[in-house]
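Extended Data, record Transcriptional regulator
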Amino acid sequence: MQFTLEQLRLFVGVAEAGSFSAAARRLGKVQSAVSTAVANLELDLGVELFSREGHKPCLTVAGEVLLEEARAVLMRAQALEERAFGFTRQVEAELVIAVDDAIPLTAIGAALGNWQGEYPGVELRLTRLPMQEAPECLMAGTLDLALLPVQANYPRDLAFQRIGQLRMVEVARPEHPLARRQGIGFAELADHRQLVYAPHGQAISTSEYVISPQRYVCESYAALLALLGEGLGWAMVPHRLVAEALADGRLVELDLAAYPFTPWLVGVDLLWCRRRGLGRAGQALREQLARVPLGEVV
């Protein structure tokens, strides 16, 4: 059994593209080369991966199972290449990391301090990049690492590690009409103006974030919290950002019927680009950030 990683890549490519011709166009190869590679893979494995009876190839039962195995092998091979690349690459002169506005910089301060002790000469640039732009920036090379609330369907070139979670809470001023209600339903929330943090409204993988048709959209949490403090609406925000205001009574947590016993938690991911790889300083920073205790106290 002498199959190659290239054969596995073409097998996965055909499965994802839906046809040999579409896979060939996507991968920049001639169709005959793709067809031959997959046929040879079937011979090496001793099973038929695609049924070719219809207009388009369809995965067989064996093909569906082995597709996941092929993806796992390719992922491990990419990880090996990335790790080896880090040993041969020199220390970067600069690293750029995006940290979502929902994640306090104080939460990663210790990790940055530990990393600085190892690489004091490397310049570090922190940016507050809209979370929907981060994946493209990572793949384009203008960004090295990103700490973001979880998103659905990352591009295949991106790797991620779940490092914690943020507790989201619905809050308002004590005099807000919703503050006096118990067992509030989503329909009641929709009757009142919602203050929305724009990047999360566009990218967080849940339909429950933007509820009300009446809303003010803010590009920063600083602006949102200012409007919230003026009583201009209710909002869903990370608990970390309003813990002090909740404790001293400036804000109150709304009593939602949908979450009587369990908090709403949003995962936090550390992302980087597999294809580009990281040098020694970048790998060290990634390892430090991966150990940040971002588990939210609920």
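Summary. The first helix runs from residue 5 to 17.
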